[in-house]
């Protein structure tokens, strides 16, 4: 599938394939894939990819500090990295994690949804759709190693993975908290949550904008495993072994069988969904609610 997100405004360097990235962030977390000295890291300014082709997977680290908010540039870089790995036959799996201490992702970038024009909102929303579709339907095994708090759009990204490991830290809550901002999780966010935790739990979680701490996230099935913080990556790697032992074609077709009906709902209504979003987010009351929420985030510090 061709990469279909808008790339207006992106720098040429962003589109350069496999920019070699110096490794300032390496060593802050658990060892890279393979862990050996010869690991070459690639990626883009906001996405560090640590490939281990011999083992058939790569660790994809999100590093858009301070909070890995999903800006248009960041979404595009994530998509480019995913596409690179998908098109290389050496890779069968990705472990998605964060390089920002204590934060997996603060979700969609509120600055992309506040005070901008309808053309921008449409371009941004198309990129959000694309991120979900591409991760949700990826033929690769995608495991998220969630090493920090994970809100709204960030939670959606984790829910799009095949398996979720969460670090056991009470601060690392995750969920679709859109209603707390006065906004509404679109139907495909909702469907993804329902497919993961079931209708009743999703109904309550979505209405109340619940962010589940690790024990509760495990109990409701939002994550599959909770492990001590320093073992998130190693637990994800161990889990991967089981997924990679399954014949690839059988696993991929089964994944598609399970997920295609949900993805098709959006694919059929993609333009209408963009128009809905643009109409909704442009409303004065919604813009005001987002500004108030951003202000609260800033005031928290004083
Ligand atoms: C229709 C569907 C639409 C949307 C779905 C979404 O994804 S909406 C986004 C929902 N996200 C949230 O509600 C999370 C908001 N952020 C937080 O709760 C905290 O920032 C967090 C993640 C717990 C981290 O807290 P911490 O104390 O470590 O950082 P701080 O709050 O000081 O944030 C640092 C700076 O980042 C800015 N920021 C935080 N979240 C976002 C965001 N989602 N988008 C844009 N910017 C964000 C925050 O304002 C701080 O900015 P600064 O200029 O340094 O004051």
What does this structure look like?
- Pathway: Lipid metabolism; fatty acid beta-oxidation.
- This is Enoyl-CoA delta isomerase 1, mitochondrial.
- Homotrimer.
- Belongs to the enoyl-CoA hydratase/isomerase family.
- This protein is an alpha/beta fold.
- It has helices spanning 12-15, 72-86, 118-136, 152-159, 187-197, 199-208, 214-220, 232-244, 248-268, 270-282, 284-299; strands spanning 19-20, 42-44, 47-52, 57-62, 93-98, 102-105, 141-146, 148-151, 163-167, 174-175, 225-227.
- Strand 4 (57-62), helix 2 (72-86) and strand 5 (93-98) form a beta-alpha-beta unit.
- Mean pLDDT is 90; it is low at 1-29 and 31-37.
- Ligand LFKQWZQV is lined by residues 66-67, 69, 103, 106-111, 149, 151-153, 177-178, 181, 183, 185-186, 294, 297-298, 300-301.
Key words describing this protein structure:
302 residues; alpha/beta; 2-enoyl-CoA Hydratase, Chain A, domain 1; three-stranded parallel sheet; 11 helices; 11 strands; globular; binds ligand LFKQWZQV; transit peptide
Estimate what percentage of residues fall within beta strands. Answer: 15-25%
CATH architecture: Alpha-Beta Complex
User: What is the β-strand count?
Assistant: 11
Oligomer: single chain
CATH superfamily: 2-enoyl-CoA Hydratase, Chain A, domain 1
Bound molecules: ligand LFKQWZQV
Query: What integer value in Å does the Rg equal?
Result: 18 Å
Unreliably modeled segments: 1-29, 31-37
Number of helices: 11
| Overall geometric form | globular
Summed up, the domain count is 1
Let me know the largest β-sheet: 8 strands, mixed
Structural class by helix and strand composition:
alpha/beta
Keywords: Acetylation, Fatty acid metabolism, Isomerase, Lipid metabolism, Mitochondrion, Transit peptide
Subcellular location: Mitochondrion matrix
Protein name: Enoyl-CoA delta isomerase 1, mitochondrial
Catalytic activity: (3Z)-dodecenoyl-CoA = (2E)-dodecenoyl-CoA; (3Z)-octenoyl-CoA = (2E)-octenoyl-CoA; (3Z)-decenoyl-CoA = (2E)-decenoyl-CoA; (3Z)-hexenoyl-CoA = (2E)-hexenoyl-CoA
């Amino acid at each position: 599938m061709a990469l279909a997100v808008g790339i207006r405004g992106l720098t040429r360097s962003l589109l350069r394939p496999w920019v070699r990235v110096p490794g300032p962030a390496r060593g802050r977390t658990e060892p890279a894939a393979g862990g050996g000295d010869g690991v070459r890291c690639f990626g883009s300014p906001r996405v560090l990819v640590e490939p281990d082709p011999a083992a058939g997977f790569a660790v994809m680290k999100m590093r858009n500090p301070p909070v890995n908010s999903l800006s248009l540039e960041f979404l595009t870089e994530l998509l480019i990295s995913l596409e690179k790995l998908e098109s290389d036959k050496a890779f069968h799996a990705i472990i998605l994690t964060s390089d920002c201490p204590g934060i997996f992702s603060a979700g969609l970038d509120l600055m992309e949804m506040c005070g901008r024009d309808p053309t921008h909102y449409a371009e941004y929303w198309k990129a959000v759709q694309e991120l979900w579709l591409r991760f949700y339907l990826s033929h690769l095994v995608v495991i998220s190693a969630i090493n920090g708090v994970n809100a709204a759009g960030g939670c959606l990204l984790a829910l799009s993975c095949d398996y979720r490991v969460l670090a056991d830290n009470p601060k690392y809550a995750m969920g679709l908290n859109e209603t707390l901002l006065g906004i509404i999780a679109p139907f495909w966010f909702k469907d993804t949550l329902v497919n993961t935790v079931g209708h009743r739990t999703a109904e309550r979680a979505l209405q109340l904008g619940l962010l589940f701490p690790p024990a509760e996230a495990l109990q409701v099935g939002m994550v599959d495993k909770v492990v001590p913080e320093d073992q998130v990556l190693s637990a994800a790697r161990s889990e991967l072994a089981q997924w990679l032992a399954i014949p690839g074609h059988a696993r991929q077709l089964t994944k598609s069988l399970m997920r295609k009906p949900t993805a098709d709902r959006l694919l059929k209504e993609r333009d209408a969904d963009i128009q809905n979003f643009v109409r909704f987010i442009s409303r004065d009351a919604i813009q005001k609610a987002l500004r108030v929420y951003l202000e609260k985030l800033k005031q928290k510090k004083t």
